[in-house]
Amino acid sequence: MNSIELILLNMKEVRRRSLKVWKSIPKEALHWKPDTEAMNCLEMIRHVLESEHYYHLAILNEGSPKEFNSPFENRPLTNVEDEVEFAEQFRKAFLKTVSTYTDKELSSIQIDRSESGYIRSLGDMLLRIPYHEAVHTGQLLDYLRSAGFKRERIWD
User: Fold this and answer.
1) 28: in domain
2) What is the CATH number of the domain that holds 102?
3) Mean pLDDT by 10 residues, the chain (156 residues)
4) Where does residue 92 rank: exposed (0-12), middle (13-18), buried (19+ CB within 10 A)?
5) Which residues pair with residue 101 across a beta bridge?
6) How far is CA 13 from the centre of its chain?
7) What's the number of domains the chain is made of?
8) Burial 31-53 (b: 16+ CB within 10 A, else e)
9) What phi and psi values does residue 98 have, to the nearest 5 degrees?
10) For strand 118-121 and strand 110-113, is the pairing parallel, antiparallel, or unpaired?
């Protein structure tokens, strides 16, 4: 396996485990949040999906896009299945883009997000994106524990 194949495998594995958690959230827990400042479960799922699309655009742009008109912005938050289905077109495009890079480009391409306080290599960014998702999936597991709901086992 080369580096790109490993990065894609990691992205797919993180998403597979996220989907196990997301789809296990009971309907009555979708709008639960630990406090008034936090995102609720469904908002967090959307945040992950929308962020992946944003990061895809940042990678294509080799830096933060000048404007970001989110296709998620005016969509009602209804359920997990709808969110995942809508995001699938963006996910496929993102994974296709990732598959086109070479091992050399992982270190030679720089993603300039100076306004957020960093410039990272493409390889670094491609590892941070699934890490972001994994962190939020962990938060959702904690939400479910805090709210007293059953938690999906993701460690298979």
Assistant:
1) no
2) 1.20.120.450
3) 96 98 96 96 98 97 93 95 98 98 97 93 97 98 95 88
4) exposed
5) none
6) 12
7) 1
8) ebbeeeeebbbbebbbebbbbbb
9) -55, -40
10) antiparallel
Task: Classify residue 70: in a domain, yes or no.
Answer: no
Which of 22, 15, 94, 17 is CA-nearest to residue 57? 94
DSSP annotation of 119 reads E
In a domain, 100, yes or no: yes
DSSP state of 113: E
User: Among residues 143, 59, 134, which one has the least CA distance to residue 100?
Assistant: 59
Structural domain span for residue 112: 3-23+39-62+79-147
Instruction: Please list the helix, strand and coil fractions of the chain in percent, rounded to the nearest 5, in that order.
Output: 65, 5, 30
Query: CA 57, 22, 82 angle in degrees (round to 5)?
Result: 65
Asked whether 128 and 113 are in contact (CB, 8 A), the reply is no
Are 53 and 72 a contacting pair, CB within 8 Å? Answer: yes
DSSP conformational letter for 28: G
Is the overall model pTM greater than 0.90, yes or no? Answer: yes
Residue 45 lies in a domain: yes
Q: Alpha-carbon torsion 68, 74, 50, 135, what sign?
A: positive
